[in-house]
Amino acid sequence: MTALITRDELKAAIDAKTVTVVDALGGEYYAKQHLPGAVPLVLADVDAHAATVLPDRGAAIVTYCSNPACPNSGQVADRLTALGYTDVRKYREGIEDWAGAGLPLESQS
């Protein structure tokens, strides 16, 4: 089971630039809105692209998707752990919680 991170902990880590945030929704969801600095990586692409997108297997990584009902972030986190990443956590509440708290989002325009 992947360790969890709270919204406040994640915001502090993003502000301090001590974490790589992974958007497990990808595609048009990522283009529309994502957490600041997040990189898109969906389960189907983890094996092929993780080493390029996340070259440091010891770096702090947090995965997220839309909300607690969305399985994507857990699946991506579990796969990254299986590939040897050692500091992977999941923001279970997801982007809906982040946006609901009025925190900043980015988009591809």
UniProtKB/TrEMBL annotation:
Ranges of residues in domain Rhodanese: 15-107
Pfam families xref list: Rhodanese
InterPro entries associated with the record: Rhodanese-like_dom, Rhodanese-like_dom_sf
Gene3D superfamilies hit by this protein: Rhodanese-like domain
Name of the protein in question: Rhodanese-related sulfurtransferase
Species whose genome carries this gene: Amycolatopsis roodepoortensis
